[in-house]
Design goal:
- It comes from Actinacidiphila paucisporea.
- InterPro entries: Alkaline_phosphatase_core_sf, Sulfatase_N, TAT_signal.
- It holds the Pfam family Sulfatase.
- It is built from 13 helices and 16 strands.
- By secondary structure, it is an alpha/beta fold.
- The protein folds into two domains: about 5-375, Alkaline Phosphatase, subunit A; about 380-465, no CATH class.
- The strands form three sheets. A ten-stranded mixed beta sheet has the order 7-6-5-4-8-1-9-10-2-11, sandwiched between helices. Strands 13-14-15-16 form a four-stranded antiparallel beta sheet, covered by helices on one side. The protein has a two-stranded parallel ribbon with strand order 3-12.
- Helix 3 crosses helix 9 and helix 7 (about 180-190) packs parallel to helix 9.
- The radius of gyration is 22 Å and the shape is globular.
């Protein structure tokens, strides 16, 4: 496809998409349909802020972000990632596809992602000025420039202080706290719009709050609100859980430590977001900038004895998920209860830009009325042996069914193993939101049938094969 073709396609797609959005808004279809203002907004600037390992229940550390994007935007209170691991999740954000489709199943195989399928490729070829600032993909060589970005400050190895960056093709160390270094470069990129009239796409990805959760010096001793855990921290009886959870040993004290350190690092992210907001206001671009903020995965704070991600439980797969676009009608401080995920970001951005992708995507634009009734989540163990086993799960608003398999990723990041089913879980999320009682533990076939497990298993198998 020529470089001009996506622009023409984008204009046609925008007109068609705008008409569809306007019709949906007028018809008053399912909750979450975008107001008719989106039809007249034009091609917005696009800002994606992606934090690293930020779970829910962290709003205390991000009040400025919340004031901008929640109080004056939309909070999706059922935001998910489809694979709770950094590189697979980021690849899903870029491509709008599940990990089993885009091929980045673990943190060792970033080059499995087909760069032709990425949102940055579509936006760049569609006339956008594109920029990447911060973390990109795990195991990406920092001497390799990120494709389809006009400007970048790629942070690798990912560190908090005096870090190494690929700075527009030159690998060098830049002194200072990385969240601040990244923010300053973002502000410079935004200033470029004073002379470059193209719409822009900025992907901003600080290290925070990923371990080692090193706070900026001014926040090193900041007191955080006391936290006494939740029923899953720690879970007293884990006899109904898989072996790796039965053997987990982390405590409430461990969870408190992780939480405290994460919150302290997020304070600097909040400062950076506020400065970006102020820059957009000064440039007169605040109204027609589509902003999406989320974490690349959640994190357990001692839930079920676990202090990490990688597990199919809610603290691991659920993330903060905020969207604001005043010119598109997304500015009312509303809450959207649809099940949404990182795979929906690329379709949303392309929908707003009026670009129709020429490769299939698993996600759906958040700008329309689409409402899924369930979501596939999946995770692969890297290398043969070890825990947790590879798993896949189907999640709805009311329940979650999970299967564990004898599968793993090999040195090329490809799936290997027998695929034997080794364990199953089902949780009633309405009556058991903390996932304390696995209803399949010692369940009879009749009890499983009453829970609808055969249909859930069939649905999971179909989603994994799609």
């Amino acid at each position: 496809m020529s470089r001009q073709d996506p622009q023409d396609l984008g204009r046609r797609g925008f007109l068609a998409g705008a008409a569809a959005v306007a019709s949906a808004a007028i018809a008053g279809t399912a909750a979450g349909a975008v107001p008719a203002q989106a039809a007249a907004a034009g091609r917005p600037n696009i800002l994606v802020v992606l934090t690293d390992d930020q779970p829910n229940a962290t709003e205390w550390a991000t009040p400025k972000t919340v004031a901008w994007l929640v109080d004056n935007g939309v909070k999706f209170n059922r935001g998910h990632v489809t694979t709770p691991l950094c590189a697979p999740s980021r690849s899903s954000i870029f491509s709008g596809r599940y990990a089993h489709d885009h091929g980045v199943r673990d943190n060792s195989s970033p080059y499995n992602l087909d760069q032709h399928t990425t949102v940055q490729r579509y936006l760049h070829d569609g006339g956008y000025r594109t920029g990447l600032f911060g973390k990109y993909l795990n195991a990406w060589h920092n001497t390799d420039n990120p494709p389809h970005f006009d400007e970048w400050l790629l942070l690798d190895p990912v560190a908090y202080n005096d870090a190494t960056y690929n700075d527009n093709g030159t690998v060098r160390t830049i002194a200072g706290y990385s969240t601040t270094v990244v923010k300053d470069r973002v502000l410079d990129f935004l200033d470029g719009s004073r002379t470059d009239q193209r719409p822009w796409f900025a992907f901003v990805a600080p290290k925070a709050p990923h371990a080692p959760n090193t706070p900026e010096p001014k926040y090193a001793d900041t007191a955080v609100p006391e936290w006494n855990g939740r029923p899953s921290v720690p879970e007293a009886d884990r006899s109904d859980k898989p072996d790796y959870i039965k053997n987990a040993t982390h405590t409430l004290a461990d969870g408190r430590t992780v939480r405290r350190n994460q919150l302290r690092t997020l304070l600097s992210v909040d400062d950076a977001v506020q400065e970006i907001h102020d820059k957009l206001a000064a440039l007169g671009q605040l109204r027609n900038t589509l902003v999406i903020y989320l974490g690349d995965n959640g994190y357990c704070w001692g839930d079920h004895g676990w202090t990490a991600k990688s597990v199919p439980y809610r603290p691991s797969i659920e993330v903060p998920f905020y969207v604001s676009w005043p010119a598109g009608g997304l500015a009312g401080g509303t809450v959207d209860d649809r099940i949404v995920a990182n795979i929906d970001i690329a379709p949303t951005l392309l929908d707003a830009a009026g670009i129709t992708p020429d490769t299939p995507q698993n996600g759906h634009s958040l700008l329309g009325s689409y409402r899924r009734d369930h979501l596939l989540t999946e995770w692969w163990h890297r290398g043969e042996g070890g825990n947790p086993h590879t798993w896949a799960s189907t999640v709805s608003a009311t329940g979650q069914y999970t299967e564990y398999y004898k599968l793993y990723t090999d040195t090329a990041g490809q799936q290997a193993g027998t695929g034997e089913l080794v364990f199953r879980e089902y949780y009633d999320l309405v009556n058991d939101p903390y996932q304390l009682t696995n209803l399949l533990y010692q369940a009879t076939p009749a009890q499983e049938a009453a829970l609808g497990i055969p249909a859930l298993a069939a649905r999971l198998a179909a989603d994994r094969a799609a």
